[in-house]
Structures are given as structure tokens and as C-alpha cells.
Write a sequence for this structure.
């Protein structure tokens, strides 16, 4: 589903690469954690998958497509296959929960009959079926992240990338978010999550890919946060 083939990324005006010679393959239906200290390259890895960034050398394949070679007008089609969530939720503040989720379908031109069916079903999936009329600022952090997850998966993407999704949440709330991501994974979505949360990684016992200064230094099928 995702292949990094000798990928190097150097940001403009930087001398050291953010990623250097990275080779990773993630199969359809996997759940993988990306770990490593701040600045090790986790966000850069995720942003190459969504074509927010392009590699300087090597190839990034998503669902068999070399995303670095996609023309600008093909990027939206890639993004329909890849849902994204972030530490800071990134909801539209003036729109209700329902509208935030519906908007993801409206911008890709889905018919309103489908929107009326999918949005409530997805709010139900994330446990927010009674909160459709609320504004994001009326919700707790955990609820806001659930809205963001609903928005990311309402289109049934192949891949979900999550960049520190529990970074702003307390431990109990984080567990709820991980249960939800696990449920989404079990529905068939490939999930790739960058995190600093050792407790979560140690509890889930999934694949762990560790980056250090832009290189993969560990890749274990069922790993823990640290090696010690
Ligand atoms: P992580 O997500 O693990 O914290 P990042 O992928 O954000 O790591 O960063 C990897 C390296 O790239 C760091 O050295 C960081 O300072 C650098 N970097 C990240 N974004 C930019 C940018 N927009 N411009 C220049 N350097 C950047
Ligand atoms: P439009 O774009 O046509 O103004 P909306 O996107 O606001 O319509 O709503 C589309 C459909 O979803 C409508 O049938 C509306 O009644 C329904 N709807 C809107 N908000 C909610 C909600 N919070 N809960 C359930 N259904 C809603």
C-alpha cells in the first residue's frame, strides 16, 4: 500500500536531510507506528505520503502510484485515498460537527443523498451521533479529535495518516482515540501513526518503525516504544 524506495528529503536551505535513504514497505491493512525523537523525520515521512512534500530522490508509492510524479491536478485524487489527522485537530471553527464531516464529501462532489447517509453513519462510528449540531469549540479535545477522525474516514480512504493524534489529549482520552483508530483499522484501513506516546505503543503491540536523524534505525513487526 505504501512503499518508500531509497527516499531522501532535504528542506530548502537545509544542509542535513530530514529523511535519508529511507526504505519502508507497508502492506494493505497494516497498522504501523512511526516513533523517534522530535526532529527525527516522522512528520516529513507522513507529508511525503500525502504529497504535501516531494522527495528529492527515491520514490514514494501509494496504492501503486508514484506520488512524486503526480501532476498537480492529480493530487486531489491521491488525497481521497489518504485521510489525515493531526495533533491540533484542524476543524473548521465556524461549522458544526455535522458540517465539518459533510464538507469533506461536498468538496469532492459527492451527491447529497450519499452525504445524508454517510455523515450520520460516520458520526455514529466515532460515537458522536448526538453532537452533530455542536460547534467544535463546544466540544472537549477528545471529541474534537473524533470529529477530525470522522472527517478523515467518511470517504472510506485506503490509508489513514495520524501525526501525534493524542499529543493534546490526556491519557484516558487517548485510550479512547486509540480504540477508535483500532476499530477503523479493523474495517480494513491501513493506519500509519507518528507518536511520542510510549504507553500507547507499548499497549498496542503493533509494527514499530523508528526514525533517528532521518534514517530508519528499527522496524519490528510487533514492537515496543523503546528497545530497553
Ligand atoms: P518529527 O516529525 O520527527 O519531529 P520532522 O519531520 O518534523 O520531524 O523534521 C525532520 C527534520 O526536518 C528536522 O530537523 C526539522 O527541523 C526539519 N524540518 C521540518 N520541517 C521543516 C521545514 N519546513 N523547513 C526546514 N526544515 C524542516
Ligand atoms: P444544504 O447544504 O443543502 O443546506 P446541509 O448540508 O446543511 O444541507 O444538510 C444536508 C442534510 O443533512 C439535510 O437533510 C439536513 O437536514 C441534514 N443535517 C444537517 N445537519 C444535521 C445534523 N446535525 N444531524 C443530522 N442531519 C443533519
Amino acid at each position: 500500500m505504501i512503499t518508500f524506495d531509497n527516499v531522501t528529503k532535504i528542506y530548502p536551505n537545509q544542509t542535513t536531510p530530514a529523511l535519508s535513504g529511507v526504505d519502508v514497505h507497508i502492506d494493505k491493512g497494516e497498522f504501523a507506528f512511526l516513533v523517534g525523537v522530535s526532529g527525527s523525520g516522522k512528520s516529513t515521512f507522513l507529508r511525503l505520503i500525502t504529497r504535501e512534500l516531494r522527495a528529492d530522490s527515491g520514490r514514494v508509492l501509494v496504492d501503486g502510484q508514484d506520488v512524486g510524479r503526480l501532476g498537480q491536478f492529480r493530487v486531489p485524487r491521491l488525497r481521497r485515498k489518504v485521510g489525515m489527522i493531526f495533533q491540533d485537530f484542524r476543524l473548521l471553527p465556524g461549522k458544526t460537527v455535522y458540517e465539518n464531516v459533510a464538507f469533506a464529501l461536498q468538496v469532492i462532489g459527492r451527491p447529497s443523498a450519499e452525504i445524508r447517509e454517510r455523515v450520520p453513519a460516520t458520526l455514529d462510528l466515532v460515537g458522536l451521533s448526538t453532537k452533530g449540531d455542536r460547534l467544535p469549540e463546544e466540544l472537549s479535545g477528545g471529541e474534537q479529535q473524533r470529529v477530525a477522525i470522522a472527517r478523515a474516514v467518511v470517504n472510506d480512504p485506503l490509508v489513514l495518516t495520524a501525526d501525534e493524534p493524542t499529543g493534546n489529549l490526556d491519557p484516558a482520552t487517548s485510550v479512547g482515540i486509540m480504540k477508535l483508530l483500532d476499530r477503523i483499522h479493523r474495517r480494513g484501513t491501513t493506519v500509519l501513526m507518528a507518536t511520542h506516546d510510549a504507553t500507547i505503543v507499548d499497549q498496542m503491540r503493533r509494527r514499530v518503525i523508528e526514525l533517528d536523524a532521518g534514517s530508519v534505525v528499527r522496524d519490528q513487526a510487533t514492537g515496543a516504544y523503546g528497545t530497553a
User: Anything to note?
Assistant: The mean pLDDT is 97.
